[in-house]
Amino acid sequence: MPVFTRFSESSQPGDGVPEVETETEGGEQGEGERGETAAVAADPAPGATRAGDGPRLTGLRTWRTRAAALRHRPALLRTWRTRHPRAARAVHLAVTVIAAFLVLGALLLPNTLPALKAVSFARIPAEAVLGAVVVLALPRRPRLVAAVLYGLGLTALTTVNLLDMGFNEYLGRGFNAALDWDLLPDAQAYVEDTLGGGVATAAAVGAVVLVLLVAAVMVAASIRLADVLSRHRVRASKGALIAGTVWVACSALGLTLFGGPIASERGAGALKVHAQRTVESLRDEAAFVRQSKADTFGNTPPGELLPDLRGKDVIFTFIESYGRSAIEDPIMAPGVDRTLDSSTEALKKAGFDARSGWLTSATYGGSSWLGHSTTMSGLWIDNQRRYRTVSAGDHLTLTKAFQKTGAWDTVGVMPGVQKGWPEEKWYGLDKLYDAFDLGYRGPKFSWSTMPDQYALEAFQRRVHGKKRDKPLMSFVILTSSHQPWAPIPRSVGWDELGDGSVFDAIQKAGNKASDVITDTTKSRQEYGKSIQYSVTSLTQWLRRYGTDDTVLVFLGDHQPIARVSGNHASRDVPVSIVAKDPKVLDKVADWKWTQGLKPDHDAPVWRMSSFRDRFLKAFGSTPHPSKG
């Protein structure tokens, strides 16, 4: 039978709670209901249905029922407060306290993980005092608008602080709003290659949801506090006056607590720093465009470039994340130093000698291409905008100088490149061998597409070992020491490499990336092992395939992330030149580099951007500047 529903006022005075009554057509009615039956039948309550009702009428009544229920919700809440006053007061106080903690926490949140301590929040933020004063001075509607804007400001502040934490942890610097958005797709690609596409998608969605959640929470907290302050205007005014007086006194006297000032301007200061950083970056970009057009060797004729290396096979090799910490950190250094010492001795037995020093990288923890381009171009390329600017121009790279002479064939071997790479032309490479050109059929090792040993053997088979009319200049990027350093390949017999399938069992038996990423000690240990593997692979290849005319220059592109290299670690990376011909090393004798593959602690340190010009001059190149 159809059921008719209607709302009537509660029988209890003042409640205002809707009471639902139902009656069945043709059924009995209780006492006191007979007088209402005709009215109900003639005009059913919203949502009720009768025989002959159409879908449109039914939908309209359903909507009216829901609207009526929504109108009565405040009444329900008032009733609950009336019946449970103590619980209501406790909830009200708890929500207000939580809102205050959220706002104060956002204003005092530091931007580095080491500073994220309880004592960092024992401060009086000026932004909270000013916010209270503004709220108290405004009428209701402007106050609501101000609270919403304040909450959005807290959202922006929290977001940049969290980004700063991540960038400081991985890249050793804060987030730059003008430059670093371009790095986010690369970060997602790294997560996808390391932990899988599902994790990468979840991380991206989670980041967006987190920002929206922070915005909703901060706006709600700001509105809540503004409402509380306005309803207790007299006491709130006195509290704001007292807090402001204390803040001014602490600021004037320079009072500190737990190593920091009591009077804090952390929130406004952080936003100011980011604003200044953005403006300076935009100005710097314009200045760099002019700088990149000038070149010490821009007009040098081909015949005056690198005359003292003619006839030599020259190989420039970058080892991923090979930094000073690998050689000097007490956890990682013992194993790496043994590898460098034993490799130096093995090379000597094969007739090779080496000299080593330090270069200060333009990047830290990642963005390896910035280190590569800085070394090869002689320009300080420390952000993505600079990289795009210079790689789109014709500034002479060290590798292109070899191509310009016409005396060398030039190739690039880059197993980490898995998509189009237009920079090939800027680097002056006649041919590029990427991840798909080396014939590898084995497993990936996390981000690294193939073990360094295989990449070097493929380089030998496809390029270096072939007969040619000219000597070869090679640009090789090794990737096995790329984070997260799990799993790490192991060396196998060079004659066993085949198509790389031999690494299947090694990859399966290795550590999982997720286990190493979350363990700082294990990350440092495995990082050291990965550097040992890469150095061993490279020096074994040189002993096996190097000739009297081989010249190898190898170096790191940057230090590993701060969690591995340590807080406040330098940006220095080792660089070595190895050759059989003593005349080659005689050309760099005045560099005062350390003999062997391990540079001394006090060996010369140069900016990475100075290497191109020093190398060109050392091997006979004549400067002919261009002004752009």
UniProtKB/TrEMBL annotation:
Q: Which UniProt keywords apply?
A: Membrane, Transmembrane, Transmembrane helix
Compositionally biased tracts (Acidic residues): 18-30
Keyword Transmembrane helix present in the record's keywords: the answer is yes
Asked whether the UniProt record includes Membrane among its keywords, one would answer: yes
Q: Which organism is it from?
A: Streptomyces tibetensis
Under InterPro entries, the record lists: Alkaline_phosphatase_core_sf
This protein's name: CDP-alcohol phosphatidyltransferase
* Region feature (Disordered): 1-57
Question: Which regions are flagged for Low complexity bias?
Answer: 37-57
Q: Where are the transmembrane segments?
A: 90-109, 115-137, 144-163, 199-221, 241-263
